[in-house]
Amino acid sequence: MLELPILSFDDTLSGAPASSASGGCASEVMLALDGSVAPRRRLPPWLKRPMPTAEMSFTSQIIEDLRLETVCESAKCPNRTECWSQRTATFMILGNVCTRPCGFCSVQKGKTEEIELDEPERVAEAAKRLGLEHVVITCVTRDDLPDGGAEHFYRCVLAVREATGAAVEVLTSDFKGNRAAISRVVQARPDVFNHNTETVPRLYERVRRNAVYQRTLDLLKQVKDEAPDMPTKSGLMLGLGETMDEVLDVASDLRAVGVEMLTVGQYLQPTPQNLPVERFVPPEEFDWLGDQCRRLGFKLVSSGPFVRSSYHAGEMAGVLGRK
Questions:
Q1: Residue 214 carries which DSSP code?
Q2: 160 Cα distance to chain centroid
Q3: 250-280 pLDDT tens trace
Q4: pTM as predicted
């Protein structure tokens, strides 16, 4: 699945009251998914990000020239300014239209298009021009394809590795539980296999529609069973109504299927049509949660408001490699 989509469409309203000192946020008005009027919260101070800078243009031009999609743009990531200024991006393959109606995600939904067969070479060329040493490749979910796009994923990994020699991290869909499709991606020998859990089981029907919690765990277990030395990774977003006990239960489930790397970040509503934020989790709670997850045995945990699946992914994988 796509990694966490995360940019509020407008974090202020003229004349709105300021956030409270306790970290609570003043309510605003928005249109809920069911058409009713619902409160919307202003971003607290710890969720402010800098405006775009001129250094982003190098990355932007390469993406445009090679006609590529990135989750940075499609998922409205607040880290795009930082990452693109540092000449890095997360490539999104298999088109820019997703077949699943997840409530948290801003990627287009609807009728998909044919796979572009030269996309693996274009992704590889972009990674080469950017000078990337760690390349993250994610995708839209393609339930319309018999293999969910697994063969295309395989080709992208091999093309990038051949052109750059870089480490490759994949962030895949669940392929509807198709074990042969999952195996095909494993056969490409990505340096990290990532598949996001996204939220707690109780919220799947509302947040991650058409996904199945156990199917996510089964995918991660299959990867570890087939390639015990391949690091596996998963990510969660907070702020959708989950409890910390539920989050720790998910973390325990992930450890039980061998996941070594965990990312935990704050969900932010990308558009008015997406699910509203129920709560902004303060940084100190992310720190506490990170400590609790490390005690469960994860080799690496990245927990904080701006943490995303591919944010500083190279540094995270590099630390794991040195252990």
A1: H
A2: 20
A3: 999 999 999 999 999 999 888 888 889 999 9
A4: 0.83
